[in-house]
Amino acid sequence: MEEKSIQFEVKHMMVSKVRGQFDSYDLTDLTTASIAFEFDVASINTHSEDRDNHLRSEDFFDVEKYPTITFQSTDIQKDGDDYEVTGDLTIKDVTKPVTFATNPWGVEVYEEFGLTWNAALETGGVLVAKDIKI
Fold first, then answer.
1. 3-state secondary structure (DSSP) of residue 43
2. Are strands 82-91 and 36-40 parallel, antiparallel or unpaired?
3. How far apart are CA 119 and CA 32, in angstroms?
4. How far is 122 from 79, CA to CA, in rounded Å?
5. How far is CA 47 from CA 5, 35, 109, in A?
């Protein structure tokens, strides 16, 4: 059986990439023409306990107040061998429409979901990039 995961990647300190995944989620079958998933934000795993704890804090996801991230599809279009899935993504009680492609390269997404913490670097730029691949 093929292992599935919800992964992300974000540029850190303007040069390195931090990759991680959510280890706990609920995903329905694409062939039903409706995709819904919910995952436990506290399950975030970037392979750095200190970073994961910071991401769980009020600075980022505030898992005590907002324990889940949800997605509900509103449209699925076949694009060759791939699919484009459009739907409502909810993070920290902010819901916005997003479109994901099912290709192996992911999709870059930038949305305002109340994730506003950041820090300026002495060399210019910011600690956490706004472009996130999901």
1. helix
2. unpaired
3. 43
4. 44
5. 15, 28, 22
- C-alpha 79/C-alpha 91 separation (Å) is 27
Report the alpha-carbon distance of residue 43 to residue 23 in Å, rounded: 6
Using DSSP, state whether 72 is helix, strand or coil: strand
pLDDT tens digits for range 81-100 = 667 888 999 999 999 998 87
pTM of the model: 0.60
Domain 6-133 has CATH 1.10.1660.10: no
Q: Which two tokens stand for residue 115?
A: 């994730």
Spatial contact of 66 and 55, defined as CB atoms under 8 Å apart = no
CA 112 – CA 116 distance, rounded (Å): 8
Q: For residue 64, what is the DSSP state?
A: T
Please give the backbone phi and psi of residue 61, each rounded to the nearest 5 degrees, phi first: -85, -20
Q: In the chain, where are the structural domains located?
A: 6-133
Residues composing the chain: 134
